[in-house]
Amino acid sequence: MVVMKFGGTSVGTATAMRQAIANIAEEKKTGAPLVVLSACSGITNQLIQIAAVAGAGNLEEAKQLVAEVREFHLDLIKELIGSEELRKEVIENIDVYLTRLERLTEGIEIVGELTERSKDRFCSFGELLSTTVFAAALNEHGVRSEWIDIRTVMITDDRYGFARPLVEICRKNTNEIIKPLLDVGTVVVTQGYIGATESGRTTTLGRGGSDLSAALFGSWLHSESIEIWTDVDGVMTTDPRMVPEARSIRVMTFSEAAELAYLGAKVLHPDTIAPAVEKNIPVYVLNTWHPSAKGTLITNDPELLKGKSHGGLVKSIAVKKAQAILNVRSNRMFGRHGFMSELFDVFERFGISVEMISTSEVSVSLTVDDAAVNESFIKELHTLGEVEIEHKVATVSVVGDNLRMSKGVAGRIFSSLCNVNLRMISQGASEINVGVVIDEGDVAAAVSALHCEFFPSDRCDAIFEKPAGS
Ligand code: ASP
Ligand code: MG
């Protein structure tokens, strides 16, 4: 069996839901899948806004926003469910949640305080609503399915906003509650992202957490694969908005996927795939709208990896904008130990994470999120030495597992970037990425040049005129 996870855009409209249902019906021919859903796109953000508005004491505005959430889901029901009786039943079901949401809103306005715990409660309604509508629509379209409140299965610790599962309990629950249904051919529809503590308080796994839910269930159920259905053709060679020739990557390793995610590509979060890596369960990133396209397979299985990749050397080019370079210079570094520890202590105290780093005997260059840089942090750094800051830079990283085994890649990277001013260079410690830091204004040209170097297309010849004779 497989786990099929549909993201917000794949359940964000009635048309998208119908398409997702068709994909599930197709999968069901070979066995009932576990279907894990996100909230409809935009709804989690709206719930967070409702919480904030209620917390700030604006009850009327919060209620208006709740009414919009209600209208949105009612419209979906109207479009998807023809049978009068079923429609009535689903409306009653979503009304239970919407009434609770309204009461919660009033409660928060009265106490005038919004805790992490109540925020999770707010956020949980997105998935509870999307799955309720979707499960009914599946049944209406003739796919027999069972809806499960995952809070009876996904039992977590009480780190609200970033909860993690109590694995043994979850595994047992999965086997007792979900598996028997799948075994008799019933599709199970449930919520990603949410869970509950042992005492029954609602928790969430953090934003984007439904991918993690899917991977966890895949690992507890020993599924054949985990399918992440989204609205793009899998993981791309680079952002297609920047380079129209970007293609989808057929197959990549878990470490390539993790590295790309860290380096700014919109791929699965590395935590997400960890449960799949442990059990070596292949993860497919697929396009809901093109179910027959192959998407991207993420795996470490040498058999599956064999001969399927194009480009070979480089898998993808990732970009992270809105970064800043910090240069810290101090003669105190020279021939002494302990400086780095003092430096990192400052980052630790301000909760700022270092992205790229490069050092010499007397200076250290680091990149951080531009938005994280603030006056008191810089003042603190000044106690260690001279500090220079360059804002509005971007990191561009070339990622591929085979980079470490190949000669001449760095040469190709740097010669294709010969017209770009490189502010910093780093060969990732993992040896599977080479990164450069450049001005944000140079990103389009740099990515285009790198893409042409490693994934040549006809357009490249036109843009980058080859010197005669080459
Ligand atoms: N709905 C949640 C979010 O928007 C979880 C998810 O979509 O993965 O973050
Ligand atoms: Mg998501």
TrEMBL record:
Q: Which GO terms describe its cellular component?
A: cytosol
- What Gene Ontology terms describe what this protein does at the molecular function level? aspartate kinase activity; ATP binding
Q: Record-annotated residues binding substrate? A: 44, 127
| Sorted UniProt keywords | Amino-acid biosynthesis, ATP-binding, Kinase, Nucleotide-binding, Transferase
Under CDD domains, the record lists: AAK_AKiii-LysC-EC, ACT_AK-like_2, ACT_AKiii-LysC-EC-like_1
One Pfam family linked to the record: ACT_9
Residues covered by the ACT domain: 328-398
Q: Where does ATP bind?
A: 5-8, 230-231, 241, 266-267
- Look up the record and give one Gene Ontology term from the biological process aspect: homoserine biosynthetic process
Q: Which reaction does it catalyse?
A: L-aspartate + ATP = 4-phospho-L-aspartate + ADP
The pathway this protein participates in, as annotated, is: Amino-acid biosynthesis; L-methionine biosynthesis via de novo pathway; L-homoserine from L-aspartate: step 1/3; Amino-acid biosynthesis; L-lysine biosynthesis via DAP pathway; (S)-tetrahydrodipicolinate from L-aspartate: step 1/4; Amino-acid biosynthesis; L-threonine biosynthesis; L-threonine from L-aspartate: step 1/5
Q: Which SUPFAM superfamilies match?
A: ACT-like, Carbamate kinase-like
EC numbers: 2.7.2.4
Which EC class does it fall in?
transferase
Question: Into which family does the record put it?
Answer: Belongs to the aspartokinase family.
Q: What is this protein identified as?
A: Aspartokinase
State the gene name recorded for this protein. lysC
